[in-house]
Design a protein that fits this description.
Blueprint: E1 11-15, H1 21-28, E2 37-41, E3 46-53, H2 59-62, H3 65-78, E4 87-90, E5 94-97, E6 100-109, E7 122-129, H4 156-177, H5 180-188, E8 196-201, E9 204-213, E10 219-221, E11 224-226
Parallel strand pairs: 1-2
Antiparallel strand pairs: 2-3, 3-7, 4-5, 5-6, 6-7, 8-9, 9-10, 10-11
Helix pairs in contact: 3-4, 3-5
Keywords: Ligase
InterPro entries: aa-tRNA-synth_II/BPL/LPL (IPR045864), BPL_LPL_catalytic (IPR004143)
GO molecular function: ligase activity
């Protein structure tokens, strides 16, 4: 399998198909891994990648990188999927294609004792269904893949390269301009924006008008402001 060719800002680490890229990155990051190291699981049916970053801001701002990766992934997919297949984002980190779950972003971050402190590392993971789901794709109506939606020629390596290019571009905009352009792009793809929706959170259900993400990255539904902190995973 040919390896993805990434922009110079990234360093690729390929791992065996049975090794989760996100789990490997989250274990390696606390031991010291270079900023921009991309772990990639070598498989053809599914994209599994993770990028290790050295944060330049306190935790609350650093977690906005989840939105940055989602927006970058949306742009990468937009150039690859057939026209008329809408890409959408659902809180906290689901990526939908034509209304079905295509993939999601995960995040792990070093714990800090002071909210003003810079976390020493952050890991963003991305999983995207690429190949066929199986002999009977209709059995999982809530899930889909690029193949099932007609993007049959897209390869995992091609998708990794595109996501990294767009992530580099959007990270630059985020660092230069703040969250505003990211917020606008995320909300343009927010699933059911402006409609009444429901979210299950910590054993309870929240219902209300979906208003997208706010200027500080919190998700707005009804009168609630939901933050990404509860979804942060710690190093195994």
């Amino acid at each position: 399998m040919p390896l993805p060719v990434l922009p110079p800002a990234f360093q690729l680490v390929a791992v065996d198909r049975d090794v989760g890229a996100f789990e490997r990155a989250a274990r390696a990051a606390p031991r010291g891994v270079g900023d921009g190291t991309v772990y990639w699981t070598e498989r053809t049916d599914r994209l599994e990648m993770a990028v290790v970053l050295e944060p330049e801001a306190p935790a609350a701002v650093t977690l906005q990188a989840v939105h940055v990766l989602m927006v970058a992934t949306g742009d990468a997919l937009g150039a690859l999927v057939p026209p008329g297949k809408p890409i959408a984002f659902a809180w906290p980190s689901d990526i939908l294609l034509d209304g079905a779950l295509l993939g999601r972003v995960r995040v792990a971050m070093a714990a800090t004792t002071d909210h003003r402190e810079l976390p020493p590392w952050l890991v963003l993971g991305l999983a995207i269904g690429v190949g066929p789901l199986g002999d009977d794709p209709g059995r999982l109506a809530e899930r889909t893949s690029l193949y099932e939606e007609g993007a049959v020629d897209v390869t995992v390596a091609q998708l990794v390269e595109s996501v990294c290019r767009h992530f580099l571009l959007w990270t630059g905009r985020w660092l230069d301009e703040g969250l505003t352009p990211v917020q606008a792009s995320w909300n343009a793809r927010c699933f059911k924006l402006g409609e009444t929706g429901e979210i299950a959170l910590a054993g309870r259900k929240l219902a209300g008008k979906i208003r997208g993400i706010a200027a500080d990255g919190a998700f707005l539904i009804g009168g609630e402001r939901l933050r990404l902190d509860p979804f942060v995973e710690r190093a195994p």
